[in-house]
Design goal:
This protein is mostly helical. The protein has 20 helices and eleven strands. The protein has helices at 20-36, 54-66, 90-102, 113-125, 139-149, 197-207, 223-233, 263-268, 273-281, 296-302, 317-330, 333-344, 363-373, 382-391, 400-404, 412-427, 434-448, 452-464, 472-479, 481-493; strands at 7-10, 39-42, 106-109, 155-158, 165-170, 174-179, 187-189, 212-216, 239-243, 246-247, 313-314. The strands form five sheets. It has a three-stranded antiparallel beta sheet with strand order 3-4-7. Strands 1-2 form a two-stranded parallel sheet. The longest helix has 17 residues, at 20-36. The chain is elongated and about 105 Å long. The protein starts with 6 loop residues before the first strand and ends with a helix. It binds one RNA strand through helix 4, strand 6, helix 6, strand 11 and helix 11.
RNA sequence: GCCCCCAUCGUCUAGGGGACUAGGACGUGGCCCUUUCAAGGCCAAGACAGGGGUUCGAAUCCCCUUGGGGGCACCA
């Protein structure tokens, strides 16, 4: 196995938007492939026609692309093992099933769902593990079941050995052994002619020459079945790696009730793909004892499956938020500006600027604003409220209450006086830059003998509309003389 | 009920017999910087689940207990 070139696959089932756990697996798959110069295959496991959701494919491709996980073979990419949809490979599975039956490793089962249900309920009530009783293993049982089934098509079951132990080698967990008596005769072929995962996976992994299977730990209990199937089919078992689950804050497996569960949700909330990649890549894997921010190239260079962890990890959103802030600050100004513009130009309801701000937004102007806001923002949409005043054409339409702020809530007369002084001061500033502005207003503070913070807060609110804003004089420089004076004059008139 | 996996600060983790008075990060608290809010800097609190072994020596190896997670479908 180690001599063959590495081939890994992501094999999701298109039943909804892909889960964060799936995407983390994709990251590990991709990393292993890129690190070793191998091939990353995408295969769609669409063998359950009842659960198939057509839109799921698009959100899968979108998720992978958003994270920058390109696949070498698969849908839209093609490849020597096409088609990459299991629903289009039914002949392969049928042939494999026939081969297993002929070799005595599998048998047709005519038991009805009703009988199986009743059987399992009885077993559960008797505190027994649910288990197929093997009626159709024998000629006689099969004949009996066939009568009950009417014209219903049979399923094909694997004839699992009743004795002995199956040992599965997991690259992370070592040898895991299972008593064969506890293992069920799994269904390989459904009565609708579609294979189950258990059959399709070995057939495809063999045909596609997959060398490493990275999958969630929920598969570990069926790993012995898979090993037996690979053996029965005469295939080499790939290296198996069962990754631990991602847990919600309550330590149960992450799911919809924990909120966002798709990377697309994070994209829409204003997270950066590199940050999400970095964060997910570090959930269950680490480079060393201190590195938190890792570039994609470093990930690829250093990734190794033996630094994978086997214990489940709680999804720590606060840390993701922090990391996203780091990535925002790491990003070149122009790129961040472009990204922000994309966001700000949306309709207000979708997280964009108020309609009063004229579009399109000026890229050069935005690039000057970015250094002022970048360290105040963890998520992209947070920039909206912080940046709006730069783009609004004229007055902010604030009432006296807002303008007076906390410090002058009980003394509007004083606020009005300060605003008119500020207006006069602003009118005298030349040139209009932050140094001159600061000097002028500092002088005003001294002349009026007011608290500097109090005066600046008034001006901040008048100019930006909010008590929390980027640095005042840099902001005023960018907003420009005309609009600043207009907003100050407006403030005076509101009292 | 049965089977399997896992177990270091609240969380993500480093650690793979002596380098551990257990390191880093997020978060939390404090201080500094400061025109607001951040960012940044410094400091602090905070963990080897418990019990047995093995060993001169155990966070590291073994066993048991406990706790958590997962699985037991004509779903993947």
């Amino acid at each position: 196995m180690p001599d063959r070139p590495v081939r890994v696959r992501l094999a999701p089932s298109p039943t909804g938007t892909p889960h964060l756990g799936t995407m983390r697996q994709a990251i590990f798959d991709w990393l292993l492939a890129r690190h070793s110069g191998g091939t990353f295959v995408l295969r769609i496991e669409d063998t359950d026609r009842n659960r198939f959701v057509p839109e799921a494919l698009d959100s899968l491709y979108e998720s992978l692309r958003w994270l920058g996980l390109d696949w070498d073979e698969g849908p839209e990419a093609g490849g020597p093992h096409a088609p990459y949809f299991q629903s289009q490979r039914l002949d392969l599975y049928a042939a494999a099933a026939k081969r297993l039956i002929d070799a005595g490793h599998a048998y047709e089962c005519y038991c009805t769902p009703e009988r199986l249900d009743a059987m399992r309920n009885a077993q559960r009530e008797a505190k027994q593990p649910p288990h197929y009783d093997g009626r159709c293993r024998t000629e006689a049982g099969r004949a009996e079941a066939k009568l009950e089934a009417g014209d219903r098509s049979p399923v094909v079951r694997f004839d699992m050995p009743d004795e002995g132990v199956t040992v599965v080698a997991d690259a992370l967990r070592g040898d895991v052994s299972f008593e064969n008596v506890r293992l069920d005769d799994a269904v390989l072929m459904k009565s609708d002619g579609f294979p189950t995962y258990h059959l399709a996976m070995p057939v495809d992994d063999h045909e596609m020459q997959i060398t490493h299977v990275i999958r969630g730990e929920e598969w570990l209990p069926s790993a012995p079945l898979h090993k037996c199937l690979f053996d029965a089919l005469g295939y080499d078992l790939p290296v198996l790696i069962h990754t631990p689950s991602i847990l919600g804050p309550d330590k149960s497996k992450l799911s919809k009730r924990h909120g966002a569960q798709s990377v697309l949700d994070y994209r829409d909330a204003g997270y950066l793909p590199d940050a999400v990649f970095n964060f997910l890549g570090l959930l269950g894997w680490s480079l060393d004892d201190k590195t938190e921010i890792i570039s994609r190239d470093e990930f690829v260079e250093h990734f190794s499956t033996d630094r994978l962890l086997k214990s489940p990890a709680v999804f720590n959103k606060e840390k993701l938020d922090w990391m996203n802030g780091e990535y925002i600050r790491l990003m070149p100004v122009e790129r961040l500006a472009a990204l922000l513009i994309e966001w700000l130009e949306r309709p207000e309801a979708d997280g964009g600027l108020p309609a009063a701000a004229p579009r399109p937004l000026d890229a050069a102007y935005t690039a000057r604003i970015v250094p002022l806001v970048r360290e105040r923002v963890k998520l992209l949409p947070e920039a909206r409220d912080m940046m709006a005043f730069f783009y609004l054409p004229d007055g902010l339409d604030l009432d006296a209450e807002t303008l007076a702020g906390k410090a002058f809530a009980g003394d509007h007369d004083k606020a009005r006086l300060l605003f008119s002084e500020a207006l006069v001061t602003a009118e005298g500033v030349d040139p209009w830059n932050h140094e001159a502005l600061e000097a002028a207003f500092q002088a005003l503070v001294e002349r009026l003998e007011v608290k500097r913070g109090d005066l600046y807060m008034l001006i901040r609110i008048a100019i930006s509309g909010r008590p929390v804003a980027p640095p005042l004089f840099d902001s005023m420089e960018l907003v420009g003389r005309e609009r600043c004076i207009e907003r100050l004059r407006d403030a005076v008139n509101r009292f």
